[in-house]
Every structure is written in structure tokens, then in C-alpha cells.
């Protein structure tokens, strides 16, 4: 989408004026043949940060429903003094959310004669200053990367294999100062990545371990490492999922897509830091060569994993990635994964689960969630739960003993692989279970399908951490 800036409302008929009113949403045709769209905000003094995001997005759906391609709005309509937001902050939120609302996944649909219905240009009216204009341009970049994450996650499983995911990472990094390497089976064997290789065995598609490095910081600066679950399709393996549960499992690489595009965002915003993204990519399939329930896998860390259920595959592949990350001596590791159905039960569809033992990081991530709209909510990561995942014939079992607390059991499993050989934390670590935010929810004013979480949160974190 194109953003232009103007001191006052343009008068051209093809430009639709957007006004924000306390009343209802209305589309008004003017006597002069133009259109005015009134976007209802509710009582202005009752506006909240969360509602501001959906109000901005609603403006796009109204413009689309009226078939308008160019709109103009007064920036100061979006200033709600009681929200204490800086104009730059509002500008960035404006373009991020306009981009997100304007996105639809149409790659596999026939183009209608009149073309796709989308906004092409937004004219932001008001005396803005260069800071706000810059913020709007920055928000555009972030919003576009969120949308690329959504496209990638939405791509059907038949067309998104580990190999294609690795190729996409390479293509997306082109022209940016990012180096991309994808380890294949032979290389993973040499590294002893028995966890990823175990999960990948049942598929005809070779697993890949994608490594992306963006080293724009000082040479001696410790990097931030992002890890994303890249299960390109999760059938459950021999513990096959039911039909309803298997639907949408092409999006089980949403964490991988998010970290790939968070890294690209950092590069496009020219953030001067060292950042690494790791994506273990596999397809979880049932076949004659699949790993079995009862198998014991030797992970890269040397710890063994007793497979109680082949459908708890995400934590297994992340075990090797969390261990691999140690070689970077990171100052922070964040993993992002559509890890458990249990987090959906715990939180519903509006927040991701946040797991960390670091209180400051917990506060910081929660605040970033509120700021960006990638809401995260803290979950326990306590020792008590560890007994649930103690293995009988291996070191750690990949599922808990009961049905309860599944998201925390999974997080505690991951935690084991963030420790060094002496049992100490190898790095500060945050785990985000985005299964609950895999797809857009009711009332969010977003197209059906992948939601692109938590790219906005990661972008802000990478900028400020
Ligand atoms: N990818 C799924 C989790 C998931 C479920 C993501 C729904 C998005 C929406 C994960 O691999 C899985 O299958 N988890 C199992 C674990 C269980 C076998 C312990 C689950 O949550 O049922
Ligand atoms: Mn699974
Ligand atoms: Zn999965």
C-alpha cells in the first residue's frame, strides 16, 4: 500500500474521506458524487489500545466493502489523549494494522474481472513532522513482513516442504545482509541431531535445519537467537491425528515463518545487532520408515528422548535446535512454536502462552505484547511439573503422564535442552507457544487463516533489547 502525506483533505472524487465518529459505521455518498466513510469508534474517552487496533483495521474492511481504493484520514482523529501514546507510536500502529487488514490470501483463487478488492493508497492528513512519517513507513515494513509470514504459513502442505521452506528463507534474505545455510540429513547426522532426524524419518521429504545469520552488531556482541518450529505438515505420525485435528496442520511451521520474517524485518529496519534465526524443518508423516511410539532418540545434547506419542513432535525437533543455539553464546534465546493444543484450551484464541523463568523478561514480553497487539500471557514453568516428563527408558518423555497441564509439560521438556552439561541455564530463554494464535480469531478484523504471530512483538524486541 502506498502512503502519502498532505496538509489538508484532497478534494478529488476518487479519494474517499474517512472520519472517525462516536456513532455507527456508515458509508455516505455525497451529493458531489464522492464517498465518506464514517468509522465508529464508540465513546472517544472509552477507547482502549486494543480497540484502537481493530478500529484501524475496520476502516480497511469498510473501504473494501465500498470498493474504494484510495482513502484519506485525519491523523489527529486517532489521537486519544488518555491513551498517552506518542504520535510516532500511533503512526507505526496505523500502518502496521492497515497492512494487516488489507491482506488476503488469494494466491490460489481466480482473479475476478474487476481485480482484487484492496486498498491501494492511504493519504494521511495533518501536520505530522518527519518523525511520524518515518514511523508510518517503518510500520509499513513490519506490516508487510507480518503478511509474508501469513502467506508462508497459509501455503498448503503439499507445496511447503522442508526443502521449499529452506529455499523460501534463502529467497527472502536475498539482497539483505543475511547468510542462509540449510543443513541436510548428512550434516545433521554428523552433528548427532537424532531428534530432528527421528521425527523426519517417516517422510519422503528430507528434513532441513535452516540457519540464518544477520550480524550487523559489533563482532564481539553476543547474538539474540530466534528458533521457530518448522513442521511443514503435522499428521501426528503413527499416532495419526483425526480428520478435524489434522485440518490446518500445514500451518505447523508458523513459528518458523515468524522467525524468518522477524529476522528479515530486523535487516530491513537496519537494526544494528547480531541476530540468528534457526528453523528445524520436518514433515511429520506415518509410513514404513516412521519413528514409533516407544522409540528412544538420542538428541544432539546427548540426552535421550523417549517417544510416548509421535504427535508431540514439535518439542523433539526443538530440543536439537535449543542445543545447537548454545554455540552462539546467546544473550537471549526465544523459541516460537505451534506447540500444544493445550495452550488453546488454557488461553482461548486471543493470546499466546509465555514461558520463562526470568521475571524481567516475562514483564518485558507482556508489555511488548500489549504495545504491539501480539498478546502473550504468562504460564508456569515450575519444577513441580518436571516429574510429569521423566522418562522410563529414556531421559525425558515427550508427553506428560496426565492430560492436564499439557502446555507447561511441553515447555518443561524444552527447558531441559536449554541447560548446559553442568545442568545450569546455558542462556536466558523465553518460549512462546503460539498454537492459540496460529489463526486469526473472531472480531479481529483480519482475513481467515494464519495470524502472523508474533512477528510484531519480535520486531519491537529486536529493536529495543
Ligand atoms: N502441532 C500440534 C499442536 C497444535 C494443535 C497446534 C492445534 C495448533 C493447533 C502439536 O504437534 C501436537 O500435536 N501436540 C499434541 C501433543 C500431545 C500429543 C501431547 C497436542 O497438543 O495434542
Ligand atoms: Mn503434533
Ligand atoms: Zn505439531
TrEMBL record:
Q: Where does Mn(2+) 1 bind?
A: 234, 311, 313
List the keywords (alphabetical). Aminopeptidase, Cytoplasm, Hydrolase, Manganese, Metal-binding, Protease
Q: Which residues are catalytic?
A: 241, 315
Entry EC no(s): 3.4.11.1, 3.4.11.10
Asked if Manganese is a keyword of the record, the answer is yes
A GO term, aspect molecular function: manganese ion binding
Q: What is its main location?
A: cytoplasm
Residues reported to bind Mn(2+) 2:
229, 234, 252, 313
InterPro entries linked: Leucine_aapep/pepB, Macro_dom-like, Peptidase_M17_C, Peptidase_M17_leu_NH2_pept
| Enzyme kind, highest EC tier | hydrolase
The record places domain Cytosol aminopeptidase at 309-316
Q: Which cofactor does it need?
A: Mn(2+)
* CDD domains recorded: Peptidase_M17 (cd00433)
Q: Which domain of life is it from?
A: Bacteria
Catalytic activity of the protein? Release of an N-terminal amino acid, Xaa-|-Yaa-, in which Xaa is preferably Leu, but may be other amino acids including Pro although not Arg or Lys, and Yaa may be Pro. Amino acid amides and methyl esters are also readily hydrolyzed, but rates on arylamides are exceedingly low; Release of an N-terminal amino acid, preferentially leucine, but not glutamic or aspartic acids
Keyword flag Hydrolase? yes
According to the record, cofactor stoichiometry and binding are noted as:
Binds 2 manganese ions per subunit.
**A GO cellular component annotation in the UniProt record:** cytoplasm
**Pfam families to which the protein is assigned, alphabetical:** Peptidase_M17
Please report which protein family the annotation says this sequence is part of: Belongs to the peptidase M17 family.
Summarizing the function annotation, the protein's role is: Presumably involved in the processing and regular turnover of intracellular proteins. Catalyzes the removal of unsubstituted N-terminal amino acids from various peptides.
* PANTHER family found in the cross-reference section: CYTOSOL AMINOPEPTIDASE, LEUCINE AMINOPEPTIDASE-RELATED
- Protein name in UniProt: Probable cytosol aminopeptidase
